[in-house]
Amino acid sequence: MIGHLLFWLAALTIAYTWLGYPLALAVARRLAARPVTSLRRPPRLSVVIAAYNEAAWIAAKLRSTLTQRYPWDRLEVIVVSDGSTDETDAIVSRYPDRRVRLLRQEPRSGKSLALNRAVAASMGDVIVFTDANALFVPDALRRLAAPFSDPDVGLVSGQGLYTSSPRSDAPVVSNGYVRYEALLRGSEAALGALASADGAIYALRRDHYRDLNGAEVNDFLHPILVALDGGRCRFVPEACTIEPASSGGTQEFRRHVRIIAQGIHIVLDWLPTLVATGCWRNVWMIVSHKVLRWTTAVALAAMLLANIAVLGDSAIYTATLAAQAVFYALAGTGWLAERRGRSIGRWALPYYFCVVSIAGLAGIVRFIRSGADAVWAPAGQAPAAGRAA
Question: Are 36 and 7 in contact (CB under 8 A)?
Fold first, then answer.
């Protein structure tokens, strides 16, 4: 009896997290249609970039920002070099556009404190947060700024897309994941909230900003602050950036472990406040979109073990065990293909699903052991000596 209960509880948890929650959002979205206002006067934008050793990308990032179809005198860029040891500072300093400013953070203290410096020095009505290696598509900032004509809108998220690669399945899987996330964010935003913004490109009305502590991840915290202030969030999928995908499962695993450990820190600090203030919409979104997803590996393991324990009780359990065996065989095939440098396209999805799921458990363990990282190396860079990756 316990085995049957455990199996169905785990199966229903997985089904709700990955299928039921999107369906519930879709239903709620149909009941919450809200007219969209048009932009009257473009707000002043301050694009802030925290950079650590981004010499390979920073010139292209500045070019993609300053060539946007946006009023010249209503746009500025502030780059905070977080203890960079390469040519990042020199490239930014000599960039031929007076709208660009460089700030130096020394010693290296992490992205969150760098963002505090940038916002304090900025003059925009709206702050745009973005990554150094995420290049704006030509009309991204105009589209991102448009919803702020509604005074109730406090945050607008775009979406980060990934470049393709003939030798890796990571871009195929990553862009599939982006489309899934876009579906969720579009439905959440129709209800006026977001579980999190896309860190590659989102904008926040200045009034909602508060200084971050070193371990607070901005794209997760800012939708919470907007909700507590009574503001609304929007999602504009056409406001895009393009960046390189991770090199494979190992890099994707490490990235998710760090993000999840930081996310747990935010949940423990802020979920009680959301409950106390009656922001139940945001509580539902965070638990469904984030917390339950982080426990997927536990649910998968429980479902497999319980399935084995009750295997002889019904033909249903034979079928479900066979389905799990096929799924894990595909995941193993994806792992083997990556190790041999071969691409199998969308068939790599089970492998990456397992990678992300196991990263959820690893992120929880990492948080319990050492908390959330304030300083880390960007994707593809080696961790700084003496710092957490």
Answer: no
pLDDT tens-digit series, residues 19-67: 999 999 999 988 776 655 555 678 999 999 999 999 999 999 999 999 9
How far apart, in whole angstroms, are the C-alpha atoms of residue 294 and residue 296?
Answer: 6
3-state secondary structure of 277: coil
Tell me whether residue 19 is in a domain.
no
Rounded Cα–Cα distance for residues 252 and 171 (Å):
11
Place of tokens 């905070």: 80
Do 155 and 206 meet the contact criterion of CB atoms below 8 Å apart?
A: no
287-303 burial: b if 16+ Cβ within 10 Å, else e: bbbbbbbbbbbebbebb
Q: Tell me, what's the pLDDT at 379? A: 53
Whether the CA torsion 94, 95, 98, 102 is positive or negative: it is negative
Give which of 301, 293, 303, 306 is closest to 359, Cα–Cα: 293
Say which residues have a Cβ less than 8 Å from residue 339's Cβ, sequence separation at least 6: none
Domain of residue 149 covers 45-252
Alpha helical stretches, state H, the chain = 2-15, 21-30, 58-66, 88-93, 111-121, 140-145, 170-190, 218-228, 249-276, 280-286, 292-294, 296-309, 315-339, 349-370
Cβ atoms of residues 357 and 256 within 8 Å: no
- Between strands 201-205 and 126-130, the pairing is antiparallel
Helices (H) and strands (E) in the chain, counts: 14, 8
The rounded distance, in Å, linking the Cα atoms of 335 and 352 is 9
Q: Is 133 exposed, middle or buried (0-12, 13-18, 19+ CB in 10 A)?
A: buried
- Look up the CATH number of the domain holding residue 138: 3.90.550.10
Alpha-carbon separation of residue 362 from 70, 253, 308 (angstroms): 43, 9, 25
Task: Report yes or no on 295 lying in a domain.
Answer: no
d(CA 130, CA 144): 12
- Residue 382 DSSP label: P
Does a structural domain hold residue 335? no
Question: Domain total for the chain?
Answer: 1
Q: What is the pTM of this model?
A: 0.89
In a domain, 189, yes or no: yes
How far apart CA 355 and CA 296 sit, in angstroms, is: 11
